[in-house]
């Protein structure tokens, strides 16, 4: 379901010092923006920002960048940065297909992709955030030995994604088709995850490591 147009979203985000609309100028220099040498974790398709905000609160020594192109949802994510006084979070309103224009080689230590659009129709599958074209770009910005974490409720999308990661030479560390909360005590739930769990819908988890 599409969110109703929020005409206040972009003007409000432009007043937020942690939201960067011209992030291309910081390519390869994000540690300078944060002012430290901490690892940078990236959430692609952050939505309303619950996952990144919670992660940043629990891990103050990690720098987080959340990406989202839908400003009607992202406005709520960017508010969380201020509400929780998060000094280790930056928000980028951008399209993931342009990721190489924003991040340099080996600049990111981890990527999260949580409950993205599965694009089930064959003609739309190139839009998937795990499609090989995207994975090729992620390989460039990820450090050697870094991981991509994928969570989804869509089994067919997950099965296809496992093939994509293998084709792009990622090592599969975890491929769990029914992720039990008790097996992952450090798991941070997204809004969608809470919803699907309340309906007893299986959650798929994949963790994939970059290697040469």
Automatic annotation (TrEMBL):
Residues annotated as binding substrate: 121, 153, 190-193
MF terms in GO: tRNA (guanine(46)-N7)-methyltransferase activity
Keywords: Methyltransferase, S-adenosyl-L-methionine, Transferase, tRNA processing
Family of this protein: Belongs to the class I-like SAM-binding methyltransferase superfamily. TrmB family.
Record's function text: Catalyzes the formation of N(7)-methylguanine at position 46 (m7G46) in tRNA.
EC number of the protein: 2.1.1.33
Protein name: tRNA (guanine-N(7)-)-methyltransferase
Pathway noted in the entry: tRNA modification; N(7)-methylguanine-tRNA biosynthesis
Keyword S-adenosyl-L-methionine: yes
Signal peptide (UniProt feature, chain positions): none
One Pfam family here: Methyltransf_4
A single cellular component GO annotation: tRNA methyltransferase complex
Entry keyword Disulfide bond: no
Reaction catalyzed: guanosine(46) in tRNA + S-adenosyl-L-methionine = N(7)-methylguanosine(46) in tRNA + S-adenosyl-L-homocysteine
Source domain of life: Bacteria
Coiled-coil ranges (or none): none
Residues engaged in binding S-adenosyl-L-methionine: 43, 68, 95, 117
């Amino acid at each position: 379901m599409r969110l109703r147009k929020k005409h206040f979203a972009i003007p409000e985000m432009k007043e937020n010092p942690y939201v960067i609309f011209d992030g291309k100028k910081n390519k390869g220099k994000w540690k300078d923006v944060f002012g430290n040498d901490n690892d940078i974790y990236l959430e692609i398709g952050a939505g309303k920002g619950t996952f990144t905000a919670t992660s940043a609160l629990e891990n103050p020594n990690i720098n987080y960048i959340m990406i989202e192109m839908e400003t009607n949802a992202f406005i709520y994510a960017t508010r969380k940065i201020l509400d929780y006084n998060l000094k280790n979070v930056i928000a980028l309103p951008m399209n993931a297909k342009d990721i190489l224009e924003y991040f340099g080689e080996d600049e990111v230590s981890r990527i999260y992709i949580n409950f993205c659009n599965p694009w089930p129709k064959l003609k739309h599958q190139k839009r998937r955030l795990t499609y090989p074209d995207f994975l090729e770009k992620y390989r460039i910005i990820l450090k050697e030995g870094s991981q991509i974490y994928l969570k989804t409720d869509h089994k067919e999308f997950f099965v296809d994604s496992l093939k994509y990661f293998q084709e792009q030479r990622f090592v599969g560390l975890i491929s769990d088709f029914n992720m039990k909360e008790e097996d992952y005590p450090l798991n941070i739930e997204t809004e969608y995850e809470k919803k699907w769990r309340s309906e007893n819908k299986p959650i798929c988890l994949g963790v994939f490591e970059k290697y040469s």
